[in-house]
Design the sequence.
């Protein structure tokens, strides 16, 4: 008896040959670089606009030194009493936070994560055109996916150097070998009358600490 | 310029005022119009209902009749030109007639819908027309999305003296005609027509115009059934009108 | 009667009435309804609530899509790239699938192949049974709706819990999906509230119809299920052949939950959902969200390659589904229907879909793309096949092509499938005979002018100025809502001849 694999492949080969097997040239005339240079003030400004447009709250800080205070402030504003961070997040990011810090080493259970109020991560890359940041699960400051999913409040630190304008620029920087999560705003749904409302299963509150030299 | 006219089967048999106006308009602009008398139908209805085999002889006949008739060919119908331009060669190839397909492509490249002919080929937007009425323009799907005539009809209408052009809401939405669709899915077609008519009536226009007799037959058929008092008039008729009236 | 009045029993009968098979007894699964499109449309057109809901939802999404597409100045270039990438995939589909299989396997995944819906369901049921789980969480997937997986799991004693909000609404109300993106597009907020109050255990009895409150109710309902789920089931938006990467594009985070928390993940994909390389996603991740939800980017896109130690499911199964796709691939033009990325933009702009909704199409794939995909997947089985009516469910207005992010020439495919429907007539139908007679008259100029003269008899019907009815079945359909002018006293060719004589 032929296996399903062999039969499906045989059918597809016959069909492909019947329907044509010459791939067309793909016109790559679309823009592969964005309107702002990676890391530029223009890209960072646009990112702030697009993030805000989809209901993320953006906190601009002038340099790395401003990160601990900004994180402490957003956690306090949200009333977070516990926070988790992947092992690679710099310790000083959480140094000023009043919330107690839970370590994920050894990994917390899902039930434990569900009892944590907030999570702080870095990002692999952010896309200004779309208001997106990408988490790479293999990057030590972003961590395994469950960490940034189960707690209801996500604080993500994005540095100017991680900001690109366009989707093609972002994909070129990413390695698909590990799990990636593209995040554009807090969880939302358009399932009721095709209108967007925020806040379903993913974190309902999303704060982005944007580290860029020219604070406004 | 010597221009061969496709009167269209519907125009010839049911709505002769549209091809007549086309003749008068082009002659007024100083061109010679010829009407190859052997013409019948471009085959659009057969193609679009799935009878591509039945359309093949009609395509062959159309190509035979028009290929040598003139340098350019015009039809006062977006959908018939759409069929000539986008479907004739396909029908020929499907029927295994590559020679016909190439002849059809050659003819299609010289075949224009009226507003295309006027604006693109003859380079006029002011055709010297006079039409003292409040008018809305329905852009018909095939003119808009098959031929991409864009705003050419509107540019022609804006130059017509005495004419008040009013915007039709949701103008680019189909009126629901769709050839045999209006019969095979009559109820859905009627639901679409109802919305088109509601938009037409919301403008308080006297006249609804378009570049296709078939869509006008559909919209006009509905407006007449409602006793709405709004007339449907082909674009060619408006452009052919002068202060001396239509000489047809 | 509006749909809100109906009780649960009525909901069930409505499902049957709307022609969706409730059990996937057909090896093709849910690709065929039970009645032809015009019959189903007749009921939908009379449903005031449905018309209102669809009109509101499609108007909203059309405006959102137009705004975000307008922001992208290289949109047409992206569409062309998407079109050619997909055409290239079709030209190399068997090789790309073998490459995907190898790359997923190398990264710790297990690849399965399914000839049809039943085989895919059997594979999934066996995989779930092997884990010992009696409940699975599902992220919305067209492929598993197509195969009728939930019914198959149910028969095996496994509860399948839909976690996408709209899919949950459909599941709770024992309804069937009517849209790719928003399966409950036919429901408005107050109907959704009523469904939740009736069917959701432990729901707050003071639930209002505010969308945010409804979303919160869904969150509370599913939270515990997510956190304890052992098996997740998903579909695929794009599978990358060279890296073995699977991607799921979603909004709510239910996808992330299903893809991340369970021990076992089973993913079902139609064989066409493949792209050659990771960088090809740069085209589709721009085209899809803007066309689909009208957003610059959807809230969440997850990608993964096989199994990652220490993160997410440690068992990953990928089921590759043919189920008629090889039939479609064999047609040089028709295979364009396999380029579809399920964005639903063509549904949202279609004036027919807007008025009839998705249930009228019978198949799980509604709207313009469904009308050309379903009959190709199933083939048209004789003149009475309900799927033969789908290609005619369009006025050929062409709005679908303009909206399609990968430039599928849907109007052309509709014509092609109409030809397939005509070819499936065994004995000539009345329509065939009428068409043949008319075409014969048109093929020769002499007969055409004779026909024109005969038509003048029609003037007898229009002595009052307009014709309001004439005998004949096709005529009844026209004259139900439209008049016709009487044939003119002088045809154009007669006018022309008279004028030539005069000069």
Sequence:
């Amino acid at each position: 008896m032929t296996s399903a694999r062999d039969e499906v492949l045989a059918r597809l080969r016959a069909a492909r040959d019947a329907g044509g097997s010459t791939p067309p040239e793909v016109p790559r005339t679309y823009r592969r670089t964005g309107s702002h240079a990676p890391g530029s003030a223009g890209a960072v400004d646009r990112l702030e606009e697009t993030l805000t447009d989809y209901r993320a709250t953006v906190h601009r800080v002038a340099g790395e030194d401003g990160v601990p205070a900004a994180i402490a402030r957003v956690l306090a504003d949200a009333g977070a009493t516990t926070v988790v961070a992947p092992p690679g997040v710099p310790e000083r990011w959480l140094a000023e936070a009043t919330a107690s810090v839970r370590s994920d080493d050894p990994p917390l259970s899902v039930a434990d994560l569900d009892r944590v109020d907030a999570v702080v991560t870095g990002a692999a890359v952010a896309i200004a055109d779309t208001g997106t940041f990408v988490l790479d699960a293999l990057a030590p400051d972003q961590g395994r996916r469950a960490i940034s999913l189960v707690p209801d409040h996500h604080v993500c630190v994005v540095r100017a150097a991680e900001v690109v304008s366009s989707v093609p620029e972002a994909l070129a920087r990413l390695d698909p070998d590990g799990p990636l999560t593209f995040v554009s705003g807090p969880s939302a749904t358009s399932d009721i009358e095709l209108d967007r409302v925020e806040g379903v299963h993913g974190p309902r509150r999303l704060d982005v600490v944007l580290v860029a030299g020219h604070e406004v | 310029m010597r221009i061969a006219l496709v009167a269209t089967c519907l125009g010839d048999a049911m709505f002769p005022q549209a091809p007549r106006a086309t003749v008068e308009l082009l002659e007024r602009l100083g061109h010679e119009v010829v009407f190859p008398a052997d013409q019948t139908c471009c085959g659009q209805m057969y193609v679009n209902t799935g009878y591509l085999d039945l359309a093949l002889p009609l395509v062959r006949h159309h190509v035979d009749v028009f290929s040598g008739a003139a340098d350019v060919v015009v039809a006062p119908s977006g959908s018939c030109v759409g069929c000539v331009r986008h479907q004739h060669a396909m029908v020929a190839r499907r029927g295994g007639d590559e020679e016909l397909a190439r002849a059809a492509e050659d003819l299609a490249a010289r075949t224009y819908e009226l507003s295309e002919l006027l604006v693109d080929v003859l380079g006029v937007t002011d055709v010297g027309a006079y039409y003292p009425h409040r008018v809305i323009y329905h852009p018909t799907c095939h003119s808009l999305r098959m031929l991409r005539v864009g705003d050419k009809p509107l540019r022609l209408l804006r130059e017509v003296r005495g004419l008040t052009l009013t915007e039709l809401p949701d103008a680019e939405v189909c009126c629901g005609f769709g050839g045999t669709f209006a019969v095979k899915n009559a109820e859905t077609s009627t639901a679409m027509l109802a919305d088109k008519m509601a938009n037409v009536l919301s403008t308080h226009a006297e006249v609804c115009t378009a570049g296709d007799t078939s869509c006008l037959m559909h919209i006009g058929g509905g407006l007449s059934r409602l006793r709405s008092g709004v007339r449907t008039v082909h674009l060619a008729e408006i452009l052919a009108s002068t202060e001396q009236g239509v000489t047809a | 009667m509006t749909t809100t009045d109906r009780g649960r029993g009525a909901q069930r009968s409505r499902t049957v009435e709307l022609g969706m098979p409730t059990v996937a007894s057909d090896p093709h699964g849910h690709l065929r309804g039970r009645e032809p499109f015009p019959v189903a449309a007749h009921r939908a057109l009379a449903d005031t609530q449905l018309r209102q809901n669809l009109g509101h939802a499609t108007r909203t999404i059309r405006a959102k899509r137009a705004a975000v597409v307008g922001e992208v100045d290289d949109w047409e270039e992206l569409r062309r790239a998407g079109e050619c990438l997909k055409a290239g995939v079709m030209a190399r589909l068997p090789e790309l699938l073998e490459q995907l299989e190898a790359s997923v396997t190398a990264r710790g995944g297990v690849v399965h192949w399914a000839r049809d819906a039943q085989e895919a369901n059997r594979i999934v049921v066996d995989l779930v049974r092997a884990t010992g789980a009696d409940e699975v969480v599902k992220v919305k997937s067209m492929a598993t709706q197509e195969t009728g997986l939930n019914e198959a799991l149910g028969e095996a004693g496994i509860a399948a819990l839909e976690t996408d909000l709209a899919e949950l609404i459909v599941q709770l109300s024992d309804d069937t999906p009517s849209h790719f993106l928003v399966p409950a597009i036919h429901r408005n907020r107050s109907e959704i509230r009523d469904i939740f109050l009736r069917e959701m255990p432990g729901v707050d009895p003071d639930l209002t119809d505010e969308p945010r409150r409804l979303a919160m109710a869904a969150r509370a309902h599913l939270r515990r299920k997510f956190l304890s789920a052992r098996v997740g089931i998903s579909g695929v938006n794009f599978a990358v052949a060279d890296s073995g990467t699977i991607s799921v594009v979603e909004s709510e985070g239910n996808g992330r939950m299903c893809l991340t928390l369970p021990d076992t993940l089973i993913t079902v994909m139609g064989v066409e959902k493949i792209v050659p390389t990771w960088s090809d996603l740069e085209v589709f991740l721009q085209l899809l969200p803007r066309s689909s939800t009208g957003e610059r980017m959807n809230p969440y896109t997850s990608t993964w390659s096989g199994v990652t130690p220490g993160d997410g499911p440690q068992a990953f199964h990928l089921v590759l589904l043919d189920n008629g796709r090889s039939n479609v691939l064999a047609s040089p033009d028709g295979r364009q229907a396999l380029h579809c990325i399920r964005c639903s933009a063509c549904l949202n702009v279609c004036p027919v879909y807007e008025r009839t909704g998705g249930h009228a199409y019978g198949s799980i794939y509604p709207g313009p793309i469904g009308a050309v995909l379903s009959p190709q997947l199933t083939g048209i089985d004789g003149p009475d096949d309900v799927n033969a009516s789908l290609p005619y469910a369009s006025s050929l207005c062409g709005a679908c092509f303009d909206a399609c992010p990968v430039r599928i020439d849907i109007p052309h495919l509709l014509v092609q499938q109409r030809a397939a429907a005509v070819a499936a007539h065994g004995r000539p139908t009345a329509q065939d005979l009428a068409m043949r007679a008319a075409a014969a008259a048109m093929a020769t100029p002499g007969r055409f002018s004779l026909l024109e003269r005969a038509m003048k008899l029609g003037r007898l019907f229009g002595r009052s100025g307009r014709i309001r009815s004439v005998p004949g079945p096709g005529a009844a359909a026209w004259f139900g809502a439209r008049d016709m002018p009487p044939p003119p006293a002088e045809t154009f060719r007669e006018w022309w001849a008279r004028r030539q004589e005069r000069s």
